[in-house]
């Protein structure tokens, strides 16, 4: 099993990523551990959660409220899926988003409304203190949460093979092609996979998916900084990137924004309505209500 | 500046034309003085502005120009010697500044007004006179906010005020105060210490930093920010610092009510001004989409550029309606203002991210004579720092959410339509009176506008595809308002505990989108039918084919196409399954996008001529 060995060696090399992002948290079911998510969001600003949809499926199928839980748009999409596996994965992933969002917002999962922007980006309607992103491939589902700005996540099979020659111009900037050209073949393919998933993650964070040309921006050799096609810095540190090789055959890439408006770390819904304003408005209304009676 | 405007004003006898011609001329004058921002040799252009940002300062030449133009007087009520008479015209005067640099707009800047507005509302004649003198003379005031829920660093910390025999004693610190190093007046929203039951929690104090007892106020060092890097954020720490009783603005404990009253102006004004900042990015994207394509933008760029322009018009319709409501519906404007601040920044941020896909790599960098190209990434950094993030949202939701159950019982589908002029951009207005603004209650003017306009459209004869589509969209939003009505009627009025939950936040989000649809529909209807103010460049004087024309008849804004696209995009956010707009609508709006690009006129309801327009 040469391939396996080669991958293991390279993984050690790649583990040198100097990402500042939090390690993805494994979430084998609705029972949690959600405290880890709350902690990660509170301390680092973000959390990335992953699970196998099969682990979540029983909970999704057992939920008599599945239709309500999915909401009208997701229910339509769900009903439109004919492949049973795709349906199961869809239901399980939406359930996981709600649980993860519920944990970050300190509210019951079924009270969160998952909505979509016209470009397809998911968001939590009315709760913009936390941004969400979702990705799945094969058996794995990944959810990203961020309270400091946008987030995008993307997952792929770590041993997915890409023909470098056929995609390099579409996927890579000249600066990246130069770097990749120097690598031996297996390393080049894996590096390409990292670049590709990082680009997916970043464009998902911007809510644009494939619409943002992948050769219009690039990453440095350590995969943590955003660069222009000719290799200059393209951000001022407001974006962090990271790629994580999970202990099994998946990798997860994350693009996470810190817009600099550092909040106090409180994302809870029950403290979000400003007490001073809320109290004054409620008082004024109740006074006018009493007058009206 | 006055010479030019007087000449124009003399030429007409009509009061409306007087004000609106005057503002159009002021905007054109500012544009001329700033010059073409894309010209790399322009010392006031994008290249110079971005270079100043690199140095983490505001462009001194631009500040000099604004001082020279007496910008500060724009923020002072006419009764006190300034030029502020109307909120909607102030927003238009701000646009030439904001389309060049958000940080310049804030830092030079508009924040003096946010500080001063409490004094304009409730200050003593002496407080008003001295602050008016300061601002008209080019000085600055800054605001020391109270602590807001979920506040970002900008809002964290709070100053406390203890009542003493000789006035007040201030204690506490605020780390992030814009212009703290050069403000000559501080408006402090201080927490009353100890808290007095029955009285409000906060009081407003007007403080002259040069007349404080020595050593009691410490200036805190500058904090660098990711966004609005050119602005100087410093701070203050007060140590048992005595201020006299004459510092109190309004009555003791009036702070939160004053904030609720005066924030209505900021909430509608900032989003209205920032529309111009996104104009810059749209303009750059149009240039990119046109490059090498003489036939105009192609493929996915067509609906994208048209859609973003429709969003800008929708944002302007909503913001302009709120700004005009401050004058015309003072008891109900608070709701519209909160919804503008809640929705418009989010809409604009999404638009910027969409435009990123047109700009590609050129969205990132300036320099090399293409200074406008850095505009996108700069704006994406600047907007959150401009207080347009979650804390702003949460403060607005706190105003909207408690009102929803009551609106369902009393206002939606019951209240009379607001005065017609609310929805007529540019039309005459009574002078702005911030003191008259209500804080809560009143009717939902945007919902009333939606319901009434939708009914009229439904009953009207239908010429053309676009209007038939608009009819269908309008009905879908009315059904959405009914659904909101039914849900909110089930909620208890005044049940505070029940208000802070995600469902209420989601309902408020729906309400904001429905409100925006109301503003779009009602504004389009007025522009399509009645006598207009000076929207769509009627007084602008540039030849914008299809965009001009007094009365709106036959003009671009009278055509339903932009409203169709805007509603379709708002409907998408609501999750409504609306049919796709006719391609003719996209073509019509895109045509206007390209025409305005070529003519150099603004992407808003007024199509003001811009410096790059050539003939101006």
TrEMBL record, chain B:
Record's keyword annotation contains Membrane: yes
Transmembrane parts of this sequence: 102-123
InterPro entries, per the entry: Acyl-CoA_Oxase/DH_mid-dom_sf, AcylCo_DH-like_C, AcylCo_DH/oxidase_C, AcylCoA_DH/oxidase_NM_dom_sf
Ranges for domain Acyl-CoA dehydrogenase/oxidase C-terminal: 253-397
Pfam family, one: Acyl-CoA_dh_1
Keywords annotated in UniProt: FAD, Flavoprotein, Membrane, Transmembrane, Transmembrane helix
UniProt similarity note: Belongs to the acyl-CoA dehydrogenase family.
Official protein name in the record: Acyl-CoA dehydrogenase
Organism: Streptantibioticus parmotrematis
